[in-house]
């Protein structure tokens, strides 16, 4: 299974092209990131990294590589429950951002047929670690709402079907 072209385009717009390294929460704050939201390492960028340009080809190649890695992670982790395309797309987006390890609890909830709990768990995943402290990443709030929506819709549909 692959991420749909529409979901990939939506995620690509969200993960803006930045052709250099930057601190993801503003200068001197957050984690060193480059291109379309690719974590280089935890902690702020060095002066050398901040001065390093990144080509458009490198940005696109790394985005594609990371999407493929996220798709493979979702396929490996969700084996019992057949995912509709919208849920697969949402999990790929989540995995791209949070990683396989960071998405582990959501995979378990999805794979055991608990979409409402999966949606709730996704919506809680709005923080990051900065200098060893957990910090709210405001930009993740709308992203998590979008990623949780297909699971919330599935939970509502299942509730209506039971009535």
Automatic annotation (TrEMBL):
The family this protein is said to belong to: Belongs to the glycosyl hydrolase 24 family.
Tell me which stretches of the chain form a coiled coil.
Answer: none
An example GO biological process term is: killing of cells of another organism
The molecular function terms of the Gene Ontology recorded here are: lysozyme activity
State the top-level EC class: hydrolase
Q: Which Enzyme Commission number(s) are listed? A: 3.2.1.17
Q: Which Pfam families match?
A: Phage_lysozyme
Q: Which SUPFAM superfamilies match?
A: Lysozyme-like (SSF53955)
Species for this entry = Massilia horti
Reactions the enzyme catalyzes:
Hydrolysis of (1->4)-beta-linkages between N-acetylmuramic acid and N-acetyl-D-glucosamine residues in a peptidoglycan and between N-acetyl-D-glucosamine residues in chitodextrins
Keyword NAD assigned to the entry: answer is no
* Protein name as it appears in the record: Lysozyme
Q: Which domain of life is it from?
A: Bacteria
Keywords for this protein: Antimicrobial, Bacteriolytic enzyme, Glycosidase, Hydrolase
């Amino acid at each position: 299974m692959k991420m749909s072209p529409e979901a990939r385009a939506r995620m690509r717009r969200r993960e803006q092209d930045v052709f250099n390294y930057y601190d993801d929460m503003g200068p001197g704050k957050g984690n060193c990131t480059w291109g379309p939201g690719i974590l280089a390492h935890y902690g702020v960028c060095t002066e050398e990294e901040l001065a390093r340009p990144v080509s458009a080809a490198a940005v696109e190649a790394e985005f594609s590589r990371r999407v493929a890695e996220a798709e493979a992670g979702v396929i490996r982790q969700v084996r019992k429950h057949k995912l509709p395309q919208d849920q697969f797309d949402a999990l790929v987006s989540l995995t791209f951002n949070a990683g396989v390890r960071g998405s582990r609890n959501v995979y378990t909830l999805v794979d055991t047929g608990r979409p409402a709990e999966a949606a709730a768990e996704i919506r809680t995943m709005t923080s990051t670690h900065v200098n060893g402290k957990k910090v709210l990443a405001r930009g993740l709030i709308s992203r998590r709402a979008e990623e949780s929506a297909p699971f919330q819709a599935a939970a509502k549909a299942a509730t209506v079907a039971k009535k």
